[in-house]
Design brief:
This protein has 420 residues and is α+β, with helices and mostly antiparallel strands. The protein folds into two domains: 235 residues, Deoxyribonuclease I, Chain A, CATH 3.60.10; 132 residues, no CATH class. Helices cover 43% and strands 17% of the residues. The chain contains twelve helices and 14 strands. A hairpin with a 2-residue loop joins β5 and β6. α10 packs antiparallel against α11.
């Protein structure tokens, strides 16, 4: 005896799908993007000229590898229509520029729609901005290109001040300062040349700024390949205000491999999570297909608290709910298939209304479980599209394996830092 779907049942299901789909999409957007998976990245690079043939190729490689939300270039040495044409080729939604003076200087700021940026002040040696991120937080960013000329660089320290710029939010300052703060930040501590000056250290002290440190090579600028001619210094860095440490969690600065320039780019990431064994948390899109998900979220979300206050609490509760209620998708699918096979064998012997109702219930649970499995593999594969109703999970298995293979492959670099 076959189970029939009546027109009334079909209409009820179709009427509920749009509302459920909108609810799921909203929750996925809020939780997956805003709370756990959005990790802002700021990329700052002294490219030493954007007019060369290799610049676009190198810049696009950096963008595809690190996916920055804000891409900052200094010493671009390019202005006018040519500069706008190059910015358009980099694939960002918006940009702002400080024109180069002849064939020197120039600051470009490019960003995606994941952040809102308002340029508050521009200067030949820095751009000061107000940022609103996806979590609704307000902060200030200043991108710096300190002049190589000492007396011009002194104008930077006198202009880049909290009182003059009216800084009233957490403040991040990043870029090429063309100066060092300590003797050990250059290859010749006894002869730091034009890079060391007391003005830089005094400015850091007077503005109550903190050095965010770094991981990677010690020097961000290198010149000369022979032992007698080699020079190196930490000219590029990221500094922050005291309230930045309190508001922006887990800020990390990395000195990247220098390609196409004497300067190493610096990557600033915050809201990063340090993985500790299996304790890291990731929101699972498949949870949204469970019948109790919405009620569980409403009951445990503190409406009086902020997103950040709810984040850690909800992570713990979701982990417990996943273990005690949601369970293992693959185990549940196999169990439902075995039960459905048993029901069909019973129906072949003697069918009755109770078996029909049980079969309908198991089929509905199996349909939900298959959708959850599809979402699980889709999320692990990190693909940008999915065909609704397609049960060919082998595609997602393959995509996930390819992703892992790419991650492994990019761990091997040749002598100039290009992945094999």
């Amino acid at each position: 005896m076959n189970t029939l779907e009546t027109p009334q049942t079909r209409n009820e299901l179709q009427a509920n799908r749009p509302q459920h789909k909108r609810t799921v999409e909203c929750l996925l957007r809020i939780m997956s993007l805003l709370i756990w998976s959005w990790s802002p990245k700021i990329f700052s690079w002294n490219c030493q000229g954007a007019a060369s043939k290799s610049f676009i190729r190198t810049a696009k490689w950096f963008i595809s590898k690190y996916h920055p939300n804000i891409f900052c270039l200094v010493e671009t040495k390019t202005s006018g229509c040519n500069a706008d044409s190059l910015c358009a080729k980099l694939g960002f939604d918006k940009w702002a520029r400080v024109e180069a003076l002849g064939f020197s200087g120039g600051i470009w700021i490019l960003w995606s729609n994941s952040v809102q940026i308002e340029v508050l002040h521009s200067h030949p040696q820095f751009v000061h901005m107000a940022i609103t991120d996806q979590l609704g937080r307000f902060w200030n960013l200043s991108v710096v290109y300190g002049s190589p000329t000492l007396h011009l660089r002194r104008r930077l320290w006198s202009s880049l001040k909290r009182t003059k710029l009216h800084v009233n939010h957490p403040w991040l300052i990043a870029g090429d300062f063309n100066a060092i703060a300590n003797d050990y930040e250059c290859s010749s501590p006894s002869n730091p040349g034009n890079h060391k000056n007391a003005d830089f250290r005094n400015w850091i002290f007077s503005e109550a700024l903190l050095d965010l440190g770094f991981s990677g090579p010690n020097f961000t600028w290198r010149r000369g390949k022979e032992e007698g001619t080699f020079k190196g210094a930490r000219l590029d860095r990221a500094l922050c205000s005291l309230d930045w440490i309190d508001r922006m969690h887990d800020t990390k600065v990395t000195h990247l491999t220098a390609i196409g320039s004497d300067h190493s780019p610096i990557l600033v990431e915050f809201d990063t999570k340090v993985k500790q064994g299996g304790n890291d948390f990731m929101f699972q899109g498949a949870w949204t297909r469970h019948r109790d998900f919405l009620d569980f979220t409403r009951q445990n979300w503190d409406k009086e608290g902020s997103v950040w206050q709810n984040k850690d609490t909800m992570a713990v509760k979701f982990k417990d709910w996943n273990r005690t209620v949601f369970g293992n998708i693959h185990y549940r699918k196999n169990n439902l298939l075995r039960r459905l096979d048993g029901i069909h064998k019973k129906m072949d012997q003697a069918c009755h209304a109770g078996l029909v109702r049980l079969e309908r219930k198991i089929k509905k649970e199996l349909e939900d479980t298959l959708q959850q499995e599809e979402i699980l593999w889709f999320q692990q594969a990190r693909e940008d599209w999915i065909a609704s109703g397609d049960r060919n999970t082998s595609f997602y298995h393959a995509a996930t394996k390819c992703k892992k293979a790419k991650i492994g492959r990019h761990n091997f670099l040749d002598m100039v830092g290009i992945p094999w």
